[in-house]
Write a structure and sequence with these properties.
It is rod-shaped, with a radius of gyration of 26 Å. Helix 2 crosses helix 5. By secondary structure, the protein is mostly helical. The chain folds into two domains: 42 residues; 109 residues, Cytochrome c-like domain (Cytochrome Bc1 Complex, Chain D, domain 2). The chain is 61% helix and 6% strand. Strand 2 and strand 3 form a beta hairpin.
Length: 160
Amino acid sequence: MQGSFRENTKKRVLLNKQSRRNLIWLLLFVATFGLVIFSAFSYDKEKGKKLYIEQCSKCHRKDGKGIKGVYPPLKNSDYVQKGDKMELLRGMLFGRSGKIVVNGEVYYGVMTTEVDKSLKDEEIALILEYVFRELNGIDKSVTSDDVVKARKLGKLPPHK
Protein backbone atom coordinates (compact mmCIF):
# COMPACT_ATOMS: atom_id res chain seq x y z
CA MET A 1 0.00 0.00 0.00
CA GLN A 2 2.85 2.34 0.82
CA GLY A 3 4.39 1.88 -2.66
CA SER A 4 1.06 2.52 -4.33
CA PHE A 5 0.58 5.79 -2.42
CA ARG A 6 4.07 6.97 -3.45
CA GLU A 7 3.48 6.09 -7.09
CA ASN A 8 0.17 7.94 -7.12
CA THR A 9 1.74 10.98 -5.46
CA LYS A 10 4.61 10.96 -7.99
CA LYS A 11 2.13 10.68 -10.85
CA ARG A 12 0.14 13.61 -9.47
CA VAL A 13 3.26 15.73 -9.10
CA LEU A 14 4.37 14.84 -12.65
CA LEU A 15 0.90 15.51 -13.95
CA ASN A 16 0.82 18.83 -12.14
CA LYS A 17 4.21 19.80 -13.60
CA GLN A 18 3.07 18.77 -17.09
CA SER A 19 -0.24 20.60 -16.62
CA ARG A 20 1.57 23.73 -15.52
CA ARG A 21 3.93 23.49 -18.48
CA ASN A 22 0.98 23.06 -20.85
CA LEU A 23 -0.80 25.97 -19.24
CA ILE A 24 2.27 28.19 -19.65
CA TRP A 25 2.56 27.26 -23.33
CA LEU A 26 -1.12 27.91 -23.84
CA LEU A 27 -0.87 31.33 -22.19
CA LEU A 28 2.18 32.23 -24.28
CA PHE A 29 0.35 31.18 -27.44
CA VAL A 30 -2.76 33.18 -26.54
CA ALA A 31 -0.68 36.27 -25.65
CA THR A 32 1.32 36.05 -28.88
CA PHE A 33 -1.77 35.48 -30.99
CA GLY A 34 -3.51 38.39 -29.26
CA LEU A 35 -0.61 40.72 -30.03
CA VAL A 36 -0.64 39.67 -33.68
CA ILE A 37 -4.38 40.25 -33.93
CA PHE A 38 -4.15 43.58 -32.08
CA SER A 39 -1.35 44.85 -34.31
CA ALA A 40 -3.23 43.79 -37.44
CA PHE A 41 -6.28 45.80 -36.41
CA SER A 42 -4.66 48.67 -34.56
CA TYR A 43 -5.42 52.18 -35.67
CA ASP A 44 -2.43 54.33 -36.70
CA LYS A 45 -3.53 57.87 -35.81
CA GLU A 46 -0.34 59.57 -37.05
CA LYS A 47 -0.44 57.86 -40.43
CA GLY A 48 -4.15 58.65 -40.73
CA LYS A 49 -3.48 62.31 -39.99
CA LYS A 50 -0.63 62.47 -42.51
CA LEU A 51 -2.78 60.89 -45.23
CA TYR A 52 -5.73 63.14 -44.39
CA ILE A 53 -3.55 66.25 -44.67
CA GLU A 54 -2.04 65.07 -47.96
CA GLN A 55 -5.34 64.05 -49.54
CA CYS A 56 -8.14 66.15 -48.03
CA SER A 57 -6.84 69.31 -46.39
CA LYS A 58 -6.66 71.43 -49.55
CA CYS A 59 -10.43 71.75 -49.39
CA HIS A 60 -11.50 70.59 -45.95
CA ARG A 61 -8.50 72.24 -44.22
CA LYS A 62 -6.01 70.63 -41.86
CA ASP A 63 -8.35 71.12 -38.91
CA GLY A 64 -11.28 69.61 -40.85
CA LYS A 65 -13.42 72.75 -40.49
CA GLY A 66 -13.69 73.39 -44.25
CA ILE A 67 -14.49 76.83 -45.64
CA LYS A 68 -18.00 78.02 -44.83
CA GLY A 69 -20.19 78.17 -47.93
CA VAL A 70 -17.47 76.65 -50.13
CA TYR A 71 -16.13 73.37 -48.69
CA PRO A 72 -18.15 71.61 -45.99
CA PRO A 73 -16.57 70.72 -42.67
CA LEU A 74 -15.61 67.18 -41.83
CA LYS A 75 -14.89 67.99 -38.18
CA ASN A 76 -17.96 67.73 -35.94
CA SER A 77 -19.96 67.23 -39.10
CA ASP A 78 -23.54 65.97 -38.87
CA TYR A 79 -23.11 64.63 -42.41
CA VAL A 80 -20.19 62.44 -41.32
CA GLN A 81 -21.80 61.50 -38.01
CA LYS A 82 -25.04 60.38 -39.68
CA GLY A 83 -23.30 59.22 -42.83
CA ASP A 84 -23.08 55.68 -43.99
CA LYS A 85 -19.51 54.36 -44.23
CA MET A 86 -20.10 53.11 -47.79
CA GLU A 87 -21.55 56.45 -48.91
CA LEU A 88 -18.60 58.34 -47.47
CA LEU A 89 -16.09 55.97 -49.06
CA ARG A 90 -17.82 56.16 -52.43
CA GLY A 91 -17.70 59.96 -52.24
CA MET A 92 -13.99 59.79 -51.48
CA LEU A 93 -13.34 57.39 -54.33
CA PHE A 94 -15.59 58.82 -57.04
CA GLY A 95 -16.49 62.34 -55.91
CA ARG A 96 -19.94 63.91 -55.37
CA SER A 97 -21.94 66.77 -56.78
CA GLY A 98 -25.12 68.69 -56.08
CA LYS A 99 -26.61 70.42 -53.07
CA ILE A 100 -25.59 69.20 -49.64
CA VAL A 101 -26.50 70.48 -46.19
CA VAL A 102 -23.87 70.12 -43.48
CA ASN A 103 -24.46 71.45 -39.97
CA GLY A 104 -27.35 73.55 -41.32
CA GLU A 105 -25.21 75.22 -44.01
CA VAL A 106 -26.04 74.64 -47.69
CA TYR A 107 -23.18 73.79 -50.05
CA TYR A 108 -23.41 73.55 -53.84
CA GLY A 109 -20.74 72.23 -56.07
CA VAL A 110 -18.67 69.32 -57.10
CA MET A 111 -16.36 67.30 -54.96
CA THR A 112 -13.85 65.79 -57.29
CA THR A 113 -12.03 62.97 -55.67
CA GLU A 114 -8.66 64.01 -54.40
CA VAL A 115 -7.81 60.51 -53.25
CA ASP A 116 -4.58 59.63 -54.99
CA LYS A 117 -4.93 56.63 -57.29
CA SER A 118 -1.65 55.25 -55.93
CA LEU A 119 -3.05 54.87 -52.40
CA LYS A 120 -3.64 51.38 -51.13
CA ASP A 121 -7.12 50.44 -49.96
CA GLU A 122 -5.81 50.28 -46.37
CA GLU A 123 -4.65 53.90 -46.65
CA ILE A 124 -8.00 55.09 -48.00
CA ALA A 125 -9.71 53.26 -45.13
CA LEU A 126 -7.33 54.90 -42.67
CA ILE A 127 -8.25 58.39 -43.93
CA LEU A 128 -11.95 57.83 -43.26
CA GLU A 129 -11.19 56.18 -39.93
CA TYR A 130 -9.17 59.29 -39.00
CA VAL A 131 -12.15 61.48 -39.95
CA PHE A 132 -14.45 59.34 -37.81
CA ARG A 133 -12.19 59.03 -34.78
CA GLU A 134 -10.18 62.25 -34.64
CA LEU A 135 -12.47 64.79 -36.27
CA ASN A 136 -15.79 63.44 -34.97
CA GLY A 137 -15.01 61.36 -31.88
CA ILE A 138 -16.68 58.29 -33.37
CA ASP A 139 -15.13 54.92 -32.54
CA LYS A 140 -15.72 53.38 -35.95
CA SER A 141 -13.23 51.25 -37.83
CA VAL A 142 -12.87 51.21 -41.60
CA THR A 143 -11.13 48.35 -43.39
CA SER A 144 -9.64 47.72 -46.79
CA ASP A 145 -12.56 45.31 -47.38
CA ASP A 146 -14.91 48.27 -46.92
CA VAL A 147 -13.00 50.16 -49.63
CA VAL A 148 -13.21 47.17 -51.98
CA LYS A 149 -17.00 47.00 -51.42
CA ALA A 150 -17.34 50.74 -52.02
CA ARG A 151 -15.43 50.44 -55.31
CA LYS A 152 -17.78 47.66 -56.43
CA LEU A 153 -20.82 49.81 -55.60
CA GLY A 154 -19.44 52.57 -57.83
CA LYS A 155 -20.24 56.25 -58.13
CA LEU A 156 -23.08 57.85 -56.17
CA PRO A 157 -25.82 59.89 -57.82
CA PRO A 158 -25.68 63.69 -57.29
CA HIS A 159 -27.02 65.10 -54.03
CA LYS A 160 -30.53 66.55 -54.42
